[in-house]
Amino acid sequence: MPPSVTTGPLRAVRPLRLLVRTLTIVATLLPVWWLVARRLLWAALRASPARLSPLDERAAQRLREACERLGVIFVKLGQLLGVRADFLPPPYVVQLARLQDSVTPVPFRVVKPALEREFGMPLHLAFEAFEETPLATASIGQVHRARYAGREVVVKFLRPDTRELLALDLRVLRFWARLGRRIDPRRQWDLIDDILDAIEAGFFEEADFAAEREHAERLREQLAGIPGVYVPYTVPARCTPNVLTLEFCSGVRIANVEQIRAWGLDGDALLNRLVELYARMMLLDGYYHADPHPGNFLVQPDGTLVLLDFGLVRELSEPTRRTLYTAARAALSGDIGRVVECLYASGMLPPDAPRAEAERFVVSFARLSVAFNQDTRGRVTALEDLLRGYPNLKFVIPPDLLYAFRLVQMLEGVASNFRPGWNVVADGGQGLAAAFTAFLLDGPPDGSASPFDRFVDTLRLGFGTAARTLVDRLGILVRVLAR
């Protein structure tokens, strides 16, 4: 369990620090609000793009600078917004994208003594060479290039005072949430509390660099056999709970579409590989990298996809994967009853959902004529119309699958740099189908599939149409529920 941020010396000075931090946040964001308000006013007056564009540029820059000054929570928010090229105007996407790996760095005069305390030796003895200028900076970590034992490495460490600043900001936001609840006691304040709890838990998970090293090593071993995917090795002798040293890998961020195309690489093939990779990690191994933002992927000139940043990893339990396997085989063979049983077993349908209605829904879902239609909006609308016809079926996302559904939106945010409007269902279908086929042919995680079952699956998937149709429909269902 991560240490609670509500304990410690902050409690004794809470009122004064709350007030000072609140005033700091308001004062830092006020210039941004003013610029946005001016922009909205001119837009309402139907001003020309020549007048609006400079306001957008200035507001976007001020927003990025404000997030940097305010620290970890606000940087995280900016990172989330910065991957949605299909949601924000281009100037905001460009500026907020810089928060992925180019936050204002901690000066080297602070970095050097901090690392020497971690290693218990002078920095020049810990490394043969160490570059003072950081390679990348982010919300909680900073990365420097170095050389160790004749090998090029990167050194990632926790930015000083990050834990203390997070604790204070969480107190400020929780204080204002409590005040807002007293003024207007609606449910959204509970939602804000849930979000803050998730941020707190996620921070302490990402800030545990010893656990991140274990994640990196496990994923490196797990993904070693997948062509075109690479995970850098770690250097255990230069790793601590607050420092992670890994192999240096060259390449460009996946959002650098211009360079990737200049290399002659096929963007669609790269995105399909990304989709297949994530589907394989979840379905075949049940252990997956759960933070797919653009700063966490490098692309090399030969098209190799390099995974970075392993602070956030999730697992899909064996029972869940076994249920998904059983449901997929049952759907392909037309066993409606078994499919319905799997919906209940997975938690997607609550126990009190009427079974007869669930069976009718599955039959209607199987007959839904949406496969291979490139109009994704029409396919999604068709499923939404179908769901409205079954008001007593309240589909829910089980906790075990919550991050898996969240990944759909994050991957679409990454892909939107190549093609605005790209989505997993219409454009990543080839990758999904490849992973799905491997999942069925590999058998359930407990290895209980009989040789006969695998032979039948091989014949069925050899023709391909049934599997691709099922993947298409399941992809639409995931997209709808992920909303």
From TrEMBL:
Residues 98-341 form the ABC1 atypical kinase-like domain. Signal peptide: none annotated. The chain crosses the membrane at residues 18-36. It comes from the Bacteria. One of its GO terms (molecular function) is kinase activity. Keywords: Kinase, Membrane, Transferase, Transmembrane, Transmembrane helix. Belongs to the protein kinase superfamily. ADCK protein kinase family. This is AarF/ABC1/UbiB kinase family protein.
